[in-house]
Structures are given as C-alpha cells and as structure tokens.
Specification:
By secondary structure, this protein is mostly helical. It has two domains: about 1-50, no CATH class; about 65-190, no CATH class. About 75% of the residues lie in helices and about 0% in strands. Helix 5 runs antiparallel to helix 6. It is rod-shaped, with a radius of gyration of 29 Å. The termini are far apart.
Length: about 190
C-alpha cells in the first residue's frame, strides 16, 4: 500500500516472483494511445489507465495517508502558536501592569483595555504571519532547488486559512492577559 509502481519485463517479473503468465500491470507505449486504449479495453475487458490517471491516483493515495498526519501537525502548531503569542503578550502586559492600572484609575473601561490588549496580540500575530510567510517562501524555494521532484504550491485559499488562523490565535491568546487587566485593582499600582 502506498509503495508506488515499478515496471519491469514480464520475463523478469516471472523469474522474481516464480509465477508464470501473471502480471498486475502491463505498460504499453503507442503512437496513438487513444486508439490502443480503446482496442485493449474492447478486446480484453481490462481497465486501461493513462499515465496521468495513474499519477493522480497515486497523488490522492499519498495525500490521504499524509493528510491525517499533516492535519494533526497543524492542530499542534495552532495550539503551540496560540500559547507562544499568549505568553508573549502576557509578559508584555505584566511588564506594563502599572500603566494599565493608571489607565483604569483614570476611568478606562474594560472594553477599552480589551481593545488595547487585542490590538497588541493582533499586531504580534500579524508580524508572526509575515515572518512565517517569508520563511515559507525561502524554505519552499530551497526545497524545490534541492529536490525538484517536490512541487510546493501556495494557494490563495491556503493563505486565507492561515491568515484567519493567525488572527484567531491572536484573539484566543488575548483572553488570559485581558482577564488579568480586567481584574486589576487600580489602587494596587500605587502600593508598589
């Protein structure tokens, strides 16, 4: 399963597997492939697949196998990214807790403080998105240069999904720091 194909002469396959007159696939090269395909299917009843069809089936097989692993990696990366952004913003807010306390003492409401924290996380997530995109572009060119058999393609759909995920990570990461700022007692700032 998922091992690809290896074509060899029928004589070599019989010698290797010890089976007479048995073949899984027969490779046929022809000047007129459409006519030959129709003749083979009509006379033998065998299914005939073009190289493009075989390649597409293999690609779908590998995408199905690797897709589950890739999706798990994406979930783990999303969780790790959210935690990293949350930790960074939480540290930044902890360092500036006095400023938030003063703003709260001057009458800043929770909504205003939340917008400030959300703005910080959005900016941080946007910078991380740009850095990730630059790393992707450089890495994909390097991989293509070293191993040209691997095609790497960035679609607008994928870019959109990643952008939405980065913004979602920023919003999730803002929850804990926002709660800390919301619970802040302005008087505690002056006790320090």
């Amino acid at each position: 399963m998922g091992t690809g194909y290896l074509f060899m002469s029928l004589h070599s396959a019989q010698a290797m597997f010890g089976a007479e007159n048995t073949a899984t696939f027969v490779l046929v090269r022809a000047a007129g492939p459409v006519a030959v395909r129709a003749a083979i299917a009509g006379r033998t009843g065998l299914s005939v697949a073009s190289p493009d069809l075989v390649a597409a089936a293999e690609q779908n097989l590998y995408a199905g196998i690797m897709g589950k692993i890739f999706n798990l990696m994406v979930v783990i990366a999303f969780a790790a990214g959210t935690l990293i952004v949350a930790l960074t913003v939480y540290s930044a807010i902890s360092d500036r807790l006095g400023e938030y306390g003063i703003a709260k003492a001057l009458g800043a409401r929770r909504g205003r403080l939340f917008r400030i924290v959300a703005g910080q996380t959005t900016v941080l997530s946007g910078l991380a998105l740009i850095a990730g995109l630059l790393l992707y572009l450089g890495g994909s060119r390097l991989i293509t240069a070293l191993w040209p058999q691997f095609q790497i393609e960035l679609t607008f759909r994928a870019l959109g999904v990643v952008t939405v995920a980065a913004l979602l990570m920023g919003m999730l990461a803002a929850l804990v720091p926002t709660r800390r700022v919301a619970r802040l007692d302005p008087a505690s700032v002056y006790r320090r």
